[in-house]
Structures are given as C-alpha cells and as structure tokens.
C-alpha cells in the first residue's frame, strides 16, 4: 500500500531542502564535536547501524545486536567516544549527491554518497582512515523539523594505516 503524498511541489522541494540541512548539520556537528546539538538532529527512537567497518570486538551492541545503537543519547555517546575519546580524532565527513524520496507527507528516505577522513597521532606518527561509501537514511517530520530516524553506512572502500583501530575501545 502506498501513502498518498498531498504536498505541493513547492512543499516537497522545501521538505527535501530541510532534510539536506539536517544531514549537513549532523556531519558538521560530528566534525566540530558539537555534542549538545548532535542528538537534536535525531528522532527519539533513532537506529544507527553505521559501525560495520569497525572490528567486531569494538562495535557497539544494543539489545544483543552488534553494529547497532538506538536512541539519540546512546548514539551521541558512541560517536563522542569514537571521535572525542582519550585521544581525539580529527575528522572530515562529506555527503554528496543525495537521492531523497518522500515516502509520505511526514517521512522520507535518502541515499548519500559519502567520504570521510579521520586522523589521530600515535606517538611520533599519524594514523588515518579514508573511507568511501553511501549513507542510507530515513527521516521523519517531528513538529516542524525533519529528523534522522534510521541510518546505515555501506562502505565501498577504506584506506587506513595498519594501527588505525588500535586507539578505539569498545563503543
């Protein structure tokens, strides 16, 4: 069964622009470590399954499921532990060429090409990861703001130094 979308063309375009803005703000908040804003970009029941690139023993677990974090608080805490832990990681995340589809007047899904680059200092040398892939997300209009309700990350390639993951503890 398909849900009829009754938005005008202008309202559809506005919804898509608002979703793009939420996505961009999330990436900026991660890289700038604005942890007080990060959870406000997600629904109360957000599910994130973006940890599959981590070694299995370092992936977060939620309700017995690996590679999964549920809720904006736990999600923010996991991202913060990764990027802003005992040794901070400098990160740059880019999202490109979004394909966003409204699935109802208040829900949407999108696919974003992504590239991320992360660095940290390991004694006298630098460790890094450069990743490429796609975010697959779902969005929901809550009040007057489009929020992220689901995210997974499909990595197509990672270039990293051999010891990059040594810094990271269990998320």
Number of strands: 8
Low-confidence stretches: none
Count of runs of 4 or more consecutive helical residues: 2
Q: Termini, distance in Å?
A: 38 Å
How is the main sheet built? 6 strands, mixed
| Beta content | over 45%
Order of helices and strands: HEEEEHEEEE
Structural class: alpha+beta
Shape call: elongated
Q: What spatial order of strands do you see in the largest sheet?
A: 4-1-8-7-6-5
Question: What portion of residues is helical?
Answer: 10-25%
**Average pLDDT value?**
92
Q: What is the rounded Rg?
A: 17 Å
Q: Any overview of this molecule?
A:
- The protein has 171 residues and is α+β, with helices and mostly antiparallel strands.
- Helices cover 21% and strands 45% of the residues.
- It has 2 helices and 8 strands, in the order αββββαββββ.
- The strands form 2 sheets. The protein has a 6-stranded mixed sheet with strand order 4-1-8-7-6-5.
- It is elongated, with a radius of gyration of 17 Å.
- The mean pLDDT is 92.
For the structure shown, list the relevant keywords:
single chain, 171 residues, alpha+beta, two-stranded antiparallel sheet
What does this entry show, briefly?
The chain is an alpha+beta fold and 171 residues long. It contains 2 helices and 8 strands.
Element layout with pairings:
Elements: H1 9-32, E1 42-49, E2 61-62, E3 65-66, E4 69-70, H2 72-83, E5 90-102, E6 107-122, E7 125-142, E8 145-160
